Amino acid sequence: MSTEDTTSDGARARTSRRGRIRVTGFDSAAVRDRETFSADRTGISGAAANRRTKAWNRFKQNRSAIIGLAILAFMVFIAVFARPIQVSLLGEGFVIQPFQLAPHNTDTNLVAGNQPPSAEHPFGTSDLGRDIMSQVMVGARFSLAIGVIAVGLAVGIGVPLGAIAGYYGGWVDEAVMRLVDILYAFPFLVLAIVIIAILGQGFWNMIAALVIVGWIGYARLIRGEILSVKENEYVMAAKALGARDRSIIFRHIVPNAIAPVIVQATLAVGTIVLAAAALGFLGLGLQPGTPEWGTILSEGREAVIRGYWWVTTFPGLAIVVFVLAVNLVGDGIRDALDPQDEVGEQEGGFR
Length: 351
What we know:
The protein is mainly alpha-helical. 72% of the residues lie in helices and 3% in strands. It has a single domain (33-346), classed as MetI-like fold (Orthogonal Bundle), CATH 1.10.3720. The protein has a two-stranded antiparallel ribbon with strand order 1-2.
């Protein structure tokens, strides 16, 4: 190699070294951590979607759950279309659902009271001469609405409180759980009766009473789940990257701990409908004359004593069928979300 070539190569090397830019204050380790956390979050999201798909496939294979779901869908259809739905807005009424499946008006005395089942009145008539089949169909709207609204509000109150208590611990956890313990000291139905006695009868008063006595179960359940997952690696990574507590709780922890709450909430709809029927039977439910299943049973007590069995048989059967369907669906959801099933599949299908 010539001297000129050697000199040229040295000059290019010096120029190359002078042309490099050195960046200071750049933490490559932090970037790698963020990239790793981003990849972990993507993996977690994909795993969650995969779990949901597996859960849905397991649920579809459960015949009892599908039968229960079909019964619930039928009863919801009856509740929605039993009679027209009208809402009042700015002093004017608007009909948002004009159809009516109920064959008769539940507020009209049609014939003589306590008529047995016939072609015109398949479920017979009540003591006041009202069509019981129409009452049961319209009553589904009140009973199902009470169950769904009360459970939804109870979950909406109990889950955030329980999640906050489990995440922060300390005096926050102590305050929330002592309130839960105090409310747990009273029997469920007795406390609901006391609250309704204070608030008075009515649709929303009954829901308020059932929510007050119902949220504590979800708070305790989600708190236990939070305590078991809040030390997981993805939570620690989110804290290290400066994520807010609200984001950590409701975007990372709660979605991974919500499965038992979903199961309990599903089963609780049937329990709430039973409780509402019991309150109505005791005369503490909706206003007299309202076609709610428990109120219908309450109004038919004396008729049963006189031998008119149909007055309470069909409303009672409606309650039994609805609660049975809810339990079938709830058991199906529990089996679908049970992590033991995934373990069994990985180990050859044995649980």
